[in-house]
Every structure is written in structure tokens, then in C-alpha cells.
Design brief:
alpha/beta, seven-stranded mixed beta sheet, 10 strands, 45% helix, 20% strand, globular, binds S-adenosylmethionine
Amino acid sequence: MSQHDKDSELDDYLLFIQKIKTATGIDLAQYKEAQMKRRLTTLRAKHGYDTFAAFFEGMNQNKTLFLEFLDRMTINVSEFWRNRNRWEVLQHKLLPDLYDHLPLKVWSAACSTGEEPYTLAMILDMAGLLPRSKIMATDIDEGALAKAMQGTYLERSLREVPEEAVKTYFKPDGLQYKIDAKLRDAVHFSKQNLLHDSFEDGFDLIVCRNVMIYFTEEAKHMLYQKFAKALRPGGILFVGSTEQIFSPSQYDLEGADTFFYRKKLEE
Ligand SMILES: C[S@@+](CC[C@H](N)C(=O)[O-])C[C@H]1O[C@@H](n2cnc3c(N)ncnc32)[C@H](O)[C@@H]1O
């Protein structure tokens, strides 16, 4: 490919990013470029468009294509009790320290199809704290949120759920499993773009896992600042298993355990 062709291909993608931002508020420039471009180029080719300009026009005329684009750019893979030993650290080591701050205000940010906030709800229920907790769960993807609110799951997403919890919190529903209504009613789902929208504050616990990996370093830096501000002093941030924060002290955070950070207490 000639340099000229490479330049016009890049311009085509950058213009697409701008148009998507204007049309949806989603800033693709804050996601790692190579990864995102590869995923979207595959989708574009699958639908027979040669350029991102044509692909954008196509989406304007075809809502289904637009929804498929949204689905492709947001990766919704999730699981209950994902990396279970980390949830056990939360349950047995870190949560007891939060008990003197009831009611608890907790948030599952980028909650996908709900497995993560429902795991939180299970753990709080096991500790007898569910009635005294407010659980927020947000995601950018309305399709994922609709599925989360429905609360029906395939057996494979229950793989890591402790046996007792499967019995207590799930009911077989045909080939699927339905989450207990008590948990469903306890989680408040809403749409939110982490890279754009403002955050509430005063959280005792924020869980944000397996989404940071898709963001650029600048976007991550901005988000850690926002999360730290949203936590109350002593509050905990729980991140994904490849998402350690390097030099957490720059955000007024300190390590509380592997993949957990505590907002420093005010001096
Ligand atoms: C791989 S899932 C992670 C789900 C869950 N946190 C877990 O660890 O199992 C990533 C989620 O991030 C969401 N997401 C991507 N960009 C986002 C943004 N800018 N704001 C909010 N959610 C976003 C996607 O829609 C997707 O549901």
C-alpha cells in the first residue's frame, strides 16, 4: 500500500471517529486504536463497505447495523464471581472494614449483562447487608443492560458461583437460570458512558473490571482520577485481574490487596 493510500485510510478512520462522537457522544479515540480499528474493520468488511465513510452512511440508514456496531465496540463478556478468589478477598477481608459505614453505597461500573452487580448483591446478602446497601450498576450498552435487568443466564456464566449460592440465588428456567428477585430488585441499572458522564460521589465500594484494558493510557488516567474522587475516604476500588494501577498514590489511593485500592483517609 502506498503512503498516500495509508494516509487516506487513516483520515477515513479519524473522520469516522469524529462522526460517531457527534452522533452518539462515544469517543472511540479514547479506546486503544489498533484493537478497536481491527474489530471495526472486520465488521465493516463483513457488511461489504470499502470505507468507514460508506460504513457510517450505511449505519445511518440501518438501525440494525448501528446496533451491531455498538455491540462490536463494547465487549460484553462477563461471568458471575469472575476470578472468584478476588471476590472472596472482598467478602472476607475488605468488606468487614466497611461495615461501620452503613448504609453502603456501591457501584458496578461497566456492569455488562449484570453478572458482576448480582455477584456483589449475593455477597452483601450473605453478610446480611443487602437491605442496608444501595447497589448501582451502569454500562454504556443498552442491550447489555436490558439483559441484566431480565436476569436470565446460561449455565456457563454460573461456573464460578459457589454451590450453596447457586441453590440460594438461581432457579432453573428452561435451559437457563433466573436470578432471585430479591437480588434483581436490589440492583439499580442505568446507562452511563464512563468516558463522558459525571459520577456520583460518596461510594464505599466501586467495582470496575475488564473495561480499562480497552482504554488509552490518557483515558485510564482520567478515569482513575474520577473514581478516586467518587470514593469516600477509606472506600475501595476493585479492578480487573490485568488492570493494576501503577503508582496509585498519584490518585490518593493505596493498595489494599491485589487488584484492590483504598482511598487514603484525610490527614
Ligand atoms: C468485558 S465487559 C466487563 C464486564 C464486567 N465488568 C466483568 O468484569 O465481568 C466490558 C463492558 O464495558 C462496557 N463499556 C465499554 N466502554 C464503556 C464506556 N465508555 N462506558 C461504560 N461502559 C463501557 C461494555 O459495554 C461492556 O459491557
